[in-house]
């Protein structure tokens, strides 16, 4: 297992924290939109320091599942516990506190159009952490932009950025809050293979630096190969396979195999 | 057919309930800690200052055209000297607030609806919520309050420019001094003309902000929804302005004129 991990990564593998405490526990999650059942039966656990990649075709409910974790959507059935708390039962204050521990990188980065890059990163610091020391805020913003290699973009507007730059800034804005769990919604979608690889490696680097546990939604196999400790394959609203990259590469399941061709 | 009608009414009632809930959310978030003063000022600038030119030109032309249209008829009755008073009362009481509100519904409600709709589609509102910030306080409360403040101020400015436009209109075919014109105009105005109109404008401003924010914040997914949000914001805001005006006129006639 360790040999396979070293082969697939370009950075040092994580220390042996996988197999730690369960931070997210989802059991028999169900979600429908009107007559359309998107999630039929989703069960998974995320442990401390672990990277889980959720693979699946478009429209299978992958993004819906992770939105239930942060309370953006409410499930119709099943449970979704984060640090032992059932998300849909949390009062507003507790949900806000939980969201402070969970970072979410949206598919397009979701940068605030009316603010500069620097203001985007400062926004959660001033509104959520209630920081008001401009020097301290600027220091954190510059540090985080440096981490993603975009220090010069601080005064740019989101409309001036490329897709890859937006993803990096989105990642910086999420990590500036020092979350313990990271959720990535298709972080490499729409990017060229070189930029996709850069983003995947950045995810791994940031995870190692900030010691986060992650769920990465993707159908990008290169990203899965770089980032995953474990891969779960979703189809028709449920998981059909689970394993490491190497294990699933040898799977006999036709759908699973189709991802590797 | 019966089922379709029932479903249609059900949808309408649900929409009304939804809007009442949204209004409740708005009022709850006004008094929450961490009011976004900077964003409110920014929105006042965007909504107010950036509408000056459009509203100013509209107001001026309103007074100018109304004067030009009134003079021939008033001449027949030998009552040309009453034109300044007539234009002033008409503009201040009714035409100014309503026309300016309708102009602002087109400009501001559509802009707010499109902006928030676009933010919804690109998941910016979700991102704000997930980060732990309060998107309602930052996006909705500031815009509605800014509209409620700026629309009456814009109306007052438009009214003043309408009177100026009326003065220019009066001087097209004849000569009327500014002192004579404006003294005639202001002498006819009473507190009962100005104050109810101002109050009416406050409600118009609230309606414009509320409808724009509601439509944008609750828009669907996809770029088509942004256009729908902007369009329906204008239509609904305009309807609300007409409805509120009717209510205001009736209330004014009961309270002020007995």
What does this protein structure show overall?
The complex is a heterodimer of chains A (261) and B (258). Chain A has a domain at 2-30 and 49-112 and 181-260: 3-Layer(aba) Sandwich (Rossmann fold), CATH 3.40.50. In chain A, 38% of the residues lie in helices and 25% in strands. Chain A contains 10 helices and 10 strands. Chain A has helices at residues 2-8, 62-69, 92-101, 117-127, 134-147, 163-175, 193-210, 221-227, 245-249, 254-260, and strands at 22-33, 36-47, 51-56, 77-82, 85-86, 102-105, 181-185, 213-218, 230-235, 238-243. In chain A, helix 5 crosses helix 6 and helix 6 (163-175) runs parallel beside helix 7 (193-210). The longest helix of chain A is centred in the last third of the chain and has 18 residues, at 193-210. Residues 1-18 of chain A have low confidence and may be disordered. Chain B has one domain. In chain B, 84% of the residues lie in helices and 0% in strands. Chain B has 9 helices and no strands. Chain B is mainly alpha-helical and 258 residues long. Chain B has helices at 2-30, 37-47, 52-76, 83-121, 124-130, 135-170, 178-187, 191-217, 223-255. Classes of the chains: A alpha/beta (261), B mainly alpha (258). At the A-B interface, helix 3, helix 4 and helix 6 of A face helix 5 of B.
Summarize, please:
The complex is a heterodimer of chains A (261) and B (258). With 261 residues, chain A is of the alpha/beta class.
Task: Say how many strands of chain A there are.
Answer: 10
The count of helical stretches of chain B stands at 9
Number of helices of chain A: 10
- Strand % of chain A is 15-25%
Most extensive protein-chain contact, per-chain counts: A-B, 25 and 16 residues
| Largest sheet data of chain B | none
**What helical percentage do the residues of chain A reach?**
25-40%
Structural class of chain A: alpha/beta
What low-confidence regions of chain B span 5 or more consecutive residues with pLDDT below 50?
Answer: none
Number of strands of chain B: 0
CATH class categorisation of the domain at 2-30 and 49-112 and 181-260 in chain A: Alpha Beta
* CATH fold-level assignment of the domain at 2-30 and 49-112 and 181-260 in chain A: Rossmann fold
How large a portion of the residues of chain B is in β-strands, by DSSP E?
A: under 5%
